[in-house]
Structure formats: C-alpha cells, structure tokens
Amino acid sequence: MQFYVRVRIYLGDTVYEDILIIRFICRRLNPNVPPGTHRTFSLLPYPLVPYSPYALPTTFTLAAALTEHGENPYQTSQVLASQYENLNPEPATLTRIKHRLLEAVHKLKQVPQKFQSLISPLLSRRSITLSELLALLGSYQSPVLVSASGARALSYDWFYVFQEERPYMQRDFLFGTPSQKRGCV
Question: Nearest to residue 51, comparing CAs of 92, 88, 97?
Fold first, then answer.
C-alpha cells in the first residue's frame, strides 16, 4: 500500500492542496510478479473524479455556468474569474468538462433496457443538452440507495446496478476513467 499526492482539488471555490490518496498494488492477475513491477489502483473518496482536479459537485457548477452562457467557454471562463477567487478554469478545461459529461450521456444510453425507465425518458431522444443532463442528475432518485439522490446515487447505480452482469474489472465509471481500465500486470 502506498500513497500519491493530488496536488490540487477544487471543491467549489475552495482549493485543497497536497491531498494524500491511497494507492493499492494490484496482484489479482499474477501474484508472482516481483514487487515494484505491479500496476496500482487508487480508491478515490467521493466527490473526487478520476484524473480531474475538479470534484464532482464543482464539475456540475462549472457545467451549469457553461449552460448559462450559451455554452461559450471563453465567456464562461471570464465570468467565473470575476465571480470566484480560485475557481477560474481555462476555456479548454470547460470544453473538456462538457465533453466528459456528454460521454456520461452516451454511457447512460447503453443502460440495459430493464433499467432505462429508472433514469429518464430523455435517454430515448437522439440528443440531450447539457442543461437537460444537469437537470436529470439533480433529480435522479435511486431505487437502491434510499439516503442518496442526484449524481452520487446515479454514479453508484451505474457501477453496481446497471452493470451488474459485468465483472467488476470490466465495469466503467459514469464520470471519469477507472484505473482498472489500464489493466493489471
């Protein structure tokens, strides 16, 4: 077991620096591999997103700001810089966040038929706008998690319920890329 440092995490306008994240050594496929040559995986706490400095609620805040400004990343970046002390991402970052969220829509459209009615009739449409996705994420009610709703509940259901027939190592996260997609040595 090891740790690595997330240099900066944005949770709203608060910036957390030098956050220790636990890293585990993957020995699942080949326990005979010499130490130091194993791949690793990390257990991220909610609300962190893999390979992103922005926490999940902050990602939604940025996406909502983007929709308020006609999905214009340059204008949105300028407005955020004037409203927040620390939360002022570059336009290219806002564009990446938008694409990451739209990837989640694509994943949700692949949910097995028996679960589609749980999510939203929006998924049957050919395209969903970013503002419609944010509304869906805000209103989602989990049939499994009684005490959770919204994006956190949908992320849980996506991994544990909607992909229940897939082995754990083949499952995907709704937001971000799991480290197991890199595979283990």
Answer: 97
pLDDT in tens, 63-88: 999 999 999 999 999 999 999 999 98
Residue recorded with tokens 């259901």: 157
pLDDT of 4-26, one tens digit each?
A: 899 999 999 999 999 998 887 77
Three-state secondary-structure class, residue 12 = coil
| Strand boundaries in the chain, DSSP class E | 2-11, 14-25, 40-42
Sheet holding 14-25, edge to edge: 2-11, 14-25, 40-42
Structure tokens at 3: 């740790």
CA-CA distance, 166 to 111, in Å (whole number)? Answer: 12
